[in-house]
Design brief:
This is Beta-ribofuranosylaminobenzene 5'-phosphate synthase family. By secondary structure, the protein is α+β, with helices and mostly antiparallel strands. It has nine helices and 13 strands.
């Protein structure tokens, strides 16, 4: 099972001032994916074997997911898990949601259960604010979700997918990660959100207009300049709102300097995915991406940064039957 990372390009109304709380836009990308293999454990084993976890925290998360799946779907033979690839956690690439959805979907397939992605998300408590990672798992592309009704914002229903556009094949995005940092998560994230002032209705209206009347038409018409300008506007607006919590429009000053260097030399849509620290610079072509990479590296030669050039991914998660380690053992 292989699922795409996603960029969270911004909330539309974090306060629900116009009736729907959060709402968000994002993009599935073709790098930093999550890849796992799930197999029915051999013999009569009732304890799952977990391979490939890079930390105790990641192993514990997988164990917790398996326990929740067992409770939701009922007892059965153990399912062994091998984790091959996953993005660095808490960087803004949606690693937690993609691991949960890939694990849950593979587990259900191996056990022979019919379960939708939304079912798995509910079982594993994903999508509390944004539905982008869940919809990206199913569909890929550029996505907009409609948030939740502010009168019942604690509901467990998935934020509805209200728009999807195939992302232009020729456009690229330079990703910059500050490996010395992690983005806000867990209780710290909850406290940070609770400390923010109400988001003004006028700004929510402005962001709604940017998404509906600038970003989506620009992607549909392959109008890169309009897309880049609108994305910069959206990111600056939402970044200023979150600045008191994350220490600035960008969580990482080093990432900010690198992105500013890119934007100084060419048309680019710059910003930060979720709480960062990963920042992005959208550019119009592969050649422009190489120019952006060179400019970013030159501006950050002494910073602990890593760089990746990605494209949009216009398909969701994929799976195939794995080679069987033992005769008669199902795998996915």
């Amino acid at each position: 099972m292989e699922s795409p990372a996603r960029l969270h390009l911004g909330f539309i109304d974090p306060n629900g001032s116009l009736g729907r709380v959060f709402g968000s836009m994002g993009l599935a990308i073709d790098t930093h994916g999550t890849r796992i293999t799930a197999r029915r454990a051999p013999g009569a084993s009732h304890r799952a074997n977990i391979e490939g976890a890079v930390s105790d925290a990641q192993r514990e998360r997988i164990e917790q997911h398996l326990a929740k799946l067992e409770a939701a779907l009922g007892p059965g033979p153990a399912v062994d898990i091998e984790l091959h690839d996953a993005p660095r956690a808490h960087t803004g690439l949606g690693s937690g949601t993609q691991l949960a959805l890939a694990l849950g979907t593979a587990f259900a397939r191996v056990r022979g259960h019919e379960a939708t992605t939304a079912d798995i998300a509910r079982m594993l408590a994903r999508g509390a604010r944004s539905g982008i990672g869940i919809h990206g798992f199913d569909h890929g592309g550029l996505l907009v979700d409609g948030g939740r009704d502010a009168r019942n914002a604690s509901a467990t229903t998935l934020p509805p997918l209200i728009a999807r556009q195939p992302f232009p094949d020729e456009w690229r995005v330079l990703l910059i990660d500050d490996t010395s940092r992690e983005g806000l998560h867990g209780d710290e994230e909850k406290r940070g959100l609770a400390s923010l002032a109400p988001f003004p209705a006028t700004l929510a209206a402005h962001l709604s207009h940017l998404v509906l009347m600038r970003v989506l038409p620009a992607v549909a018409e392959h109008d890169f300049d309009t897309f880049a300008d609108a994305l910069c506007d959206l990111q600056q607006t939402i970044g200023e709102y979150f600045a008191p919590v994350q220490g600035g429009v960008f969580a990482s000053p080093a990432v900010a300097r690198a992105l500013e260097a890119v934007a100084a030399g060419q048309k680019a849509g710059i910003g930060q995915t979720s709480w960062g620290p990963v920042g992005f610079a959208f550019v119009a072509s592969a050649q422009d991406a190489e120019r952006a990479l060179a400019a970013a590296k030159q501006a950050s030669s002494y910073a602990p940064l890593t760089f990746t050039i990605a494209a949009g991914r216009n398909r969701g998660a994929t799976w195939r039957a794995a080679e069987r380690r033992h005769h008669g053992v199902n795998a996915a």
